[in-house]
Amino acid sequence: MKIEMKFWKKLSPEQRLSRVQEAIKGNVNFFNDASLGYPASRLDDKVFPIEAPFLKDAPVLSTFVTNPNHIGCHTFGSSESAFKGTQDIERDVLNMIAVDLFKVEEGAFDGYISPGGTEANIQALWIYRNEFQKKYGAKNEEIAILASEDTHYSIPKGANLLTLDWVKVPVEMETRQMSEESLKKVVGDAVAAGKKYFIAISNMGTTMFGSVDDPVQITSVLKSFDLPFRLHIDGAYGGFVYPFSENESQINFQNPEISSITIDAHKMLQAPYGTGIFICKKGLMENVLTTEAQYVEGMDLTLCGSRSGANAVAVWVILTTYGPHKWFEKISILKMRTNWLCKRLDEMGIPYFREPEMNIVTIRSQAVPKELAKKFSLVPESHTSENEWYKIVLMEHVEVEHLKDFIQELKDWNKS
Ligand SMILES: *Cc1c(COP(=O)(O)O)cnc(C)c1O
After folding, report:
1. How far apart are CA 87 and CA 250, in angstroms?
2. Is 154 in the pocket of ligand 1 (CB under 6 A)?
3. Most CB within 10 Å of its CB: which of 24, 70, 269, 371?
C-alpha cells in the first residue's frame, strides 16, 4: 500500500501525553468548575482517585477518570460544549480513519465512535431504511437487506429491530464467495416478491472466515435491476487488516457506490471494548435525526446516547503510538504467521480456507479432533453437531510457538 497520511502520524509519548492533557483541559472540569446541570461527573473519586500516581503518564486512563461524555455526533453541527477538548481528539481520529485509510475527502464525511460493530452496522441500516422511506415513501416490506450467508449476526439483528427482511445470498463452500448467478437469483426473487429498495452489505472480512466480498460484483448486479440501493461495508473485523496489503485495496470511498463503513477498534486494534467506528458520506446521517432530543446540545444523530470519550482517546493513542508504518509492519508479521500455518496445513493435506491478505485460517472440522479444538480453543462455526469449520485467528498473542504445538498434535492424530 502507499502510505501517504495527512492526519495519521506517529507521535512520541510526550507529544501524545501533552495533546491529551490539553484536550482534558478543554473539557469541563468537574473538580473545579461550577457545573450544576449535568447528570454527570468524574468517576467517583473514592473509587477512582485522580491522584493515583500511575495516571500521570497514562493518557487513556486519566481521560477515563475524568469521564467525558461524547454523546452525539461531532462531525455535524454543534456539539455538547462541555467536552469539546476530547471531542476534538475524536474528530482527529475519525479523520485518520476516514480520510487517510478509507480515502474520503476531507470534510465530506460524518461519523462517530460507536459502542461497537453491531451498533455501527445497525446505524447504517437505520440511515438507509429512513432514507428510502423519506425519499421514495418506501414501506418496510419493500426494503431488503442483501448480504451473504457468512455475514455477521448483527445484520439479522438490525433487520429484526428495523422490521426489514434480510435476503441471504449463499456462498460457495470452498471459496466463501457469492457467485454472480446466486446474487442475481436472490435479487430477482426478492424483486418478484415485492422488494424495491436494497441495502447491500459487503463484508471486508467475515467473522468466521475473514472472507472479503467484492463490492463491485454486488453493485453491478444491483444496477442491472435498475433499483435504488445503498452499499455499506462491514469492516468490523478486517478494517485494520485488509487495507494494509501489498496490493492497493479498492474497498474505500474512492468507489462512489460505497456510502458507509463499520470498523471495530476493539478487535485488531486492541482498544477497550465499547469501541467501534461508524463512518458515512455527508448528507446521510440526518436521516436518523431524533428531533425530540432537546436537552442535548447539538443534534441527536446516533443510535446510542451517552458514550465514553475515553474510547475515542484510546483509539487516538493507539494509532499515534504506531503510526501507519509500524501498523503496516505489525499486520505484515501477523500475515507471515498466517502463511506459516497455511504452509504446514498444505504439507499435511488438511483442507482450510484463507482469504489472501487476511489473518484468519478456517479449517474443515473433519480434519481436527474435537479434543484438540478444545485444547487450543479453536472457535467452531456452529456450536452444534453439524459444525463444519474451526477457525484460528492470528492475533498478536498467537505466536508460531503455539502454532507449532498445535500442528504437532494434529500430525500425531492424523498418523494414529
Ligand atoms: C465482530 C463483528 C461485528 C460486531 O461487532 P461487535 O463489536 O462485536 O458489536 C460485526 N461484523 C463483523 C464482520 C464482525 O467481525
Report:
1. 30
2. yes
3. 70
Tell me the pLDDT tens digit for each residue of 301-350: 999 999 999 999 999 999 999 999 999 999 999 999 999 999 999 999 99
Answer for the pair 75, 225: CB distance below 8 angstroms, yes or no: no
Is 150 close to ligand 1, i.e. is its CB under 6 Å away? no
Query: pLDDT for 362-410, tens place per residue?
Result: 999 999 999 999 999 999 999 888 899 999 999 999 989 999 999 999 9
CA dist., res. 282 & res. 14, Å (int)? 35
Q: Which residue has the cell 446474487?
A: 183
- How far, in Å, from the CA of 144 to the mean position of ligand 1? 21
Identify whether the C-beta of residue 351 lies closer than 8 Å to the C-beta of residue 380.
no
Structural domains of the chain, with CATH: 81-321 (3.40.640.10), 324-415 (3.90.1150.10)
Give residue 25 CA to ligand 1 midpoint distance, Å: 34
pTM metric for this prediction:
0.96
77: left (phi over 0), alpha (psi -120 to 50) or beta: left
Let me know: does 71 contact 306? Beta carbons within 8 Å.
yes
- Ligand 1 neighbour 16 (Cβ under 6 A): no
Which phi and psi angles does 352 have, rounded to 5°? Answer: -155, 165
And the C-alpha cell for 112? 462517530
